[in-house]
TrEMBL record:
GO biological process: isopentenyl diphosphate biosynthetic process, methylerythritol 4-phosphate pathway; terpenoid biosynthetic process; thiamine biosynthetic process
Annotated EC: 2.2.1.7
Endpoints of the signal sequence: none
Chain ranges of the Transketolase-like pyrimidine-binding domain: 325-490
Pathway named in the protein's UniProt entry: Metabolic intermediate biosynthesis; 1-deoxy-D-xylulose 5-phosphate biosynthesis; 1-deoxy-D-xylulose 5-phosphate from D-glyceraldehyde 3-phosphate and pyruvate: step 1/1
Family designation: Belongs to the transketolase family. DXPS subfamily.
Function of the molecule: Catalyzes the acyloin condensation reaction between C atoms 2 and 3 of pyruvate and glyceraldehyde 3-phosphate to yield 1-deoxy-D-xylulose-5-phosphate (DXP).
Cofactor stoichiometry and binding remark: Binds 1 Mg(2+) ion per subunit.
Organism expressing this protein natively: Leyella stercorea
UniProt entry keywords in alphabetical sequence: Isoprene biosynthesis, Magnesium, Metal-binding, Thiamine biosynthesis, Thiamine pyrophosphate, Transferase
Gene3D superfamilies: 3.40.50.920, 3.40.50.970
Required cofactor names: Mg(2+); thiamine diphosphate
The organism's place on the tree of life at top rank: Bacteria
Annotated protein name in UniProt: 1-deoxy-D-xylulose-5-phosphate synthase
Length: 633
C-alpha cells in the first residue's frame, strides 16, 4: 500500500475545507483518508476495520451537513477515526489512544464535533432522538440530527427502545443504519436476518428509491410533502401487501438499502433526505474493512488488529508462545473442560465470543454456547431463565458492559439466588480503550446485592478453581472478576480442578508489622513490591493475604489479622469507594477492631486512556505505590 501522496487530505483540517471540494474529488479524498488510517494504525493500533468501512459515509456526512451545528451521533465510536481526522485532529491522530493523546472514542470533552459520549453500544438513537426533540423545542428547525448505528449495535435493547420512541414526539431525526453483516464477530439475531431480507427484496427497494427520486423532483421532500408521501407510501404498501417494513411500521420512513461505499451516491441521497421532515431511517450496506484486503477478508481479526505491516498485511504480534495464557483463554478452555463433565453447563456471551474466548466452546459444543448479540441485560436474564429450569449457565460479560445489566443481575438472578455464574472479563483498568471501558465499578455496584458471591482469582489456577467451585451444587449466583490480558503462569496454568471453600482467603506470606490484603491478580504486584523492598534492604515484615472473596468475606481470617496487626493495607484494581477495601473497613468497624485500614484503589474520578502500567501508576495502585504505602507505616 502506497502511503505518500495525500494531496487532497493535506488541504483539509476541518469540514469547511472539505466542503470546498467538488463532489467528483470525493472518491479520491476517500482513498487518501483510508490510506492515512491504515498507515497510522499500523504503528499505533486501534479499531481499524470499522473505520475503513465508513470512510465514504463520514466524508459524505461532513460534506452535506453543517457540522458541528448539525449533530452526528456515532454509535460506539470505534468507527469514527475518519471523523476525527476530518475534524481538526489530523495532526494529533498519531496520539490516538495514547496517554494524554486523543481519546479512543468521540467525546465532547475533546471536540465540538463529538456530540456525545461514545464507547458503549446502542445509545445513539436515544441520544440523537433527544437532540432532535431538543432542536424542535428550541425552535431550531434547521439543525439536522443524525444517528449512525451499526447492524451489531442495532441488536442492543437500548436501540430498540429508542426506535420504539422515535415517532412519539415531533422530530426530524435521521437514523443511518450502517449494515455490514458484522458485529466484532458475525452479527447475530432476528433483526440481522430481517435486514438481510430487506437487502434482497429488490422490488421493494427499487420502488422506494424511485419514490424518493420522484418526490424530490416534485419538491415534496423539502416542504409540504407529507400528503404526497403518505399517498405514495400507501400505494407502495398496497402494491406490496406482503412486505411489511418494521421501521415504516413504527412510523419511521425507510430508505434503502443503498451502497454506503459510494460517496457520490451518498452525497446525493443525504442531500435529498436531510431536509425531509419527520423521522427517517437510511439503510446503507457497507463492507467492514473496505479498501484494505486483509481487513475485508478477516474483519473479526482486523476489528482491532494491533500493529501490522501495511504493505503485506502481516500482523506484528511477536512470539507469544512463551508467554502465559490470557485469562480469557483460561476461561474458554476451562469452560469446555467443565462442560464435558457437567452436561448442564452452557455458555452465554453478549456479542463477544472472540473477546472472551467463548468461541472455543462454540466450536467444540455449538449447541451449548450462545451469542445473544449486544444485549448484556438479556444475556443475564436469558441465563437466569435457563438456570431456573435446570441448566447451569456461565454468562461472560466485560465488566464495563455489565453495567448495562445491573437490574437483571439483581432482579432476575440474585433474588432467586439462581445457579448462574457471571464471569466478568476485562475487570479493572483495561488500558487504551479508556474511561468508558475500564471495568472498575462492579465490586462497589454488586457488593450490596444480597445472595451474590463475589470472588476474584489471583492467577490462572485460581480462576479454574473458582469456575469449578461455582458450578458445584447450591452455590447460587457467583460473580468471578478477572482482568484483560495475560496471567502469570506459564506451563502450569492447568492445575487440578479443586473446590475452594466459599468465603475463604489464603495467606501468601506471613509477616509481623503490616498486613496487605489483596483482591484479584493485583496480589501479584503486592508480591513484587514485597520482594523488591526486601532486595532493597527494607526491614518491615510484611504479611500478604489473597482474600479471594469480597463477599462473603473470610471473617475468621479477618479476626486473626485484626488480632495481630495494628495497620493493614487493602488493594484492588477497582474504584476504591465502596469496593473490597471498604468491605474490610466496614467489617473492622462493625466488629470494633482498633485497626487502621489504608485502602488502595482507584480514586473517585474517571481514569482516561493509556497503557495499563501507566494507568495503574496514575491511579496509585502500581508496585511503586504499594511499596510507598508499606514503608509509610
Ligand atoms: C454495550 C456494549 N457491548 C459490547 C461492546 C463491544 N463492541 C464494540 S463494537 C462492537 C460491534 C459493533 O458492531 P456494529 O455496530 O455493527 O459496528 P461495526 O463494527 O460492524 O462497524 C461490539 C460488540 C460495546 N462497545 N458496548
Ligand atoms: C469498541 C469496543 O468496545 C471493543 O472493540 C473493545 O475495544 C474490545 O476490547 P478488547 O480489545 O479488550 O476485546
Ligand atoms: Mg456491523
Amino acid at each position: 500500500m502506497s502511503t505518500d501522496n495525500l494531496e487532497l487530505l493535506d488541504k483539509i483540517q476541518y469540514p469547511e475545507d472539505l466542503r470546498q471540494l467538488p463532489v467528483e474529488q470525493l472518491p479520491e479524498l476517500c482513498a487518501e483518508l483510508r490510506q492515512d488510517i491504515v498507515k497510522e494504525l499500523s504503528v499505533n493500533p486501534g479499531h481499524l476495520a470499522s473505520s475503513l468501512g465508513v470512510v465514504e459515509l463520514t466524508v459524505a456526512m461532513h460534506y452535506t451537513l453543517n457540522t458541528p451545528y448539525d449533530r452526528i451521533v456515532w454509535d460506539v465510536g470505534h468507527q469514527a477515526y475518519g471523523h476525527k481526522i476530518l475534524t481538526g485532529r489530523k495532526d494529533q491522530f498519531y496520539t490516538n489512544r495514547k496517554l494524554g493523546g486523543i481519546r479512543p472514542f468521540p467525546s465532547p470533552k475533546e471536540s465540538e464535533y463529538d456530540t456525545f459520549t461514545c464507547g458503549h453500544a446502542s445509545n445513539s438513537i436515544s441520544v440523537a432522538l433527544g437532540m432532535a426533540v431538543a432542536a424542535h423545542k428550541n425552535n431550531e428547525p434547521d439543525r439536522h440530527v443524525v444517528a449512525v448505528i451499526g447492524d451489531g449495535a442495532m441488536s442492543g435493547g437500548l436501540a430498540f427502545e429508542g426506535l420504539n420512541n422515535v415517532s412519539s414526539s415531533p422530530n426530524d431525526l435521521l437514523i443511518i443504519l450502517n449494515d455490514n453483516d458484522m458485529s466484532i464477530d458475525r452479527a447475530v439475531g432476528g433483526m440481522e436476518k430481517y435486514l438481510l431480507n430487506l437487502d434482497t427484496n429488490a422490488t421493494y427497494n427499487r420502488l422506494r428509491d424511485r419514490a424518493s427520486k420522484w418526490l424530490h423532483s416534485k419538491g415534496y421532500l423539502n416542504d409540504d410533502r407529507r400528503k404526497g408521501l403518505i399517498r405514495l407510501n400507501n400505494a407502495i404498501k398496497s402494491a406490496l401487501a406482503h412486505q411489511q417494513n418494521i421501521f415504516e411500521g413504527m412510523n419511521i420512513r425507510y430508505f434503502g438499502p443503498f451502497d454506503g461505499n459510494d460517496v457520490v451516491e451518498l452525497v446525493r441521497i443525504l442531500n435529498q433526505l436531510k431536509d425531509m421532515r419527520g423521522p427517517k431511517l437510511l439503510h446503507l450496506h457497507t463492507v467492514k474493512g473496505k479498501g484494505y484486503k486483509p481487513a475485508e477478508e478477516a474483519a473479526t481479526i482486523w476489528h482491532a488488529p494491533g500493529k501490522f505491516d501495511p504493505d503485506t498485511g502481516e500482523r506484528l504480534t511477536g512470539d507469544t508462545s512463551q508467554q502465559p495464557l490470557r485469562y480469557q483463554d483460561v476461561f474458554g478452555r476451562t469452560l469446555v473442560e467443565l462442560a464435558k463433565q457437567n452436561p448442564k453447563i452452557v455458555g452465554v456471551t453478549p456479542a463477544m465470543p472472540t473477546g472472551c474466548s467463548l468461541d472455543i466452546m462454540m466450536h467444540e459444543m455449538p449447541d451449548r454456547a450462545f451469542d445473544v448479540g449486544i444485549a448484556e441485560g438479556h444475556a443475564v436474564t436469558f441465563s437466569a431463565g435457563m438456570a431456573k429450569d435446570g441448566l447451569l449457565p456461565f454468562c461472560n460479560i466485560y465488566s464495563a458492559f455489565a453495567q448495562r445489566a445491573y437490574d437483571n443481575i439483581v432482579h432476575d438472578a440474585a433474588i432467586l439466588n439462581l445457579p448462574l455464574v457471571l464471569c466478568f472479563d476485562r475487570a479493572g483498568l483495561v488500558g487504551e480503550d479508556g474511561a468508558t471501558h475500564h471495568g472498575v465499578l462492579d465490586i462497589a455496584a454488586l457488593r450490596p446485592v444480597p445472595n451474590l458471591t463475589l470472588c476474584s482469582p489471583m492467577d490462572e489456577c485460581e480462576l479454574r478453581r473458582m469456575m469449578y467451585t461455582a458450578q458445584l451444587p447450591d452455590k447460587g449466583t457467583v460473580v468471578i472478576r478477572y482482568p484483560r490480558g495475560r496471567g502469570v503462569r506459564r506451563d502450569d496454568w492447568q492445575c487440578a480442578l479443586e473446590e475452594i471453600p466459599v468465603g475463604k482467603g489464603r495467606c501468601i506470606r506471613e509477616g509481623d508489622d503490616v498486613a496487605v490484603l489483596s483482591y484479584g491478580p493485583i496480589g501479584n504486584d503486592v508480591e513484587k513490591a514485597i520482594e523488591q523492598l526486601k532486595a532493597e534492604g527494607c526491614t518491615t515484615s510484611v504479611a500478604h493475604y489473597d482474600m479471594r472473596f469480597c463477599k462473603p468475606l473470610d471473617e475468621e481470617l479477618l479476626q486473626n489479622i485484626a488480632a495481630k496487626f495494628k495497620r493493614i493495607i487493602t488493594i484492588e484494581d477497582a474504584q476504591r469507594t465502596g469496593g473490597f477495601g471498604s468491605a474490610v473497613l466496614e467489617w473492622m468497624s462493625d466488629n470494633d477492631k482498633p485497626v487502621k485500614v489504608v485502602r488502595m484503589g482507584i480514586p473517585d474520578r474517571f481514569i482516561e486512556h493509556g497503557t495499563v502500567p501507566e494507568l495503574h501508576h496514575i491511579a496509585g495502585i502500581d508496585v511503586e505505590a504499594i511499596k510507598a504505602e508499606i514503608t509509610k507505616g
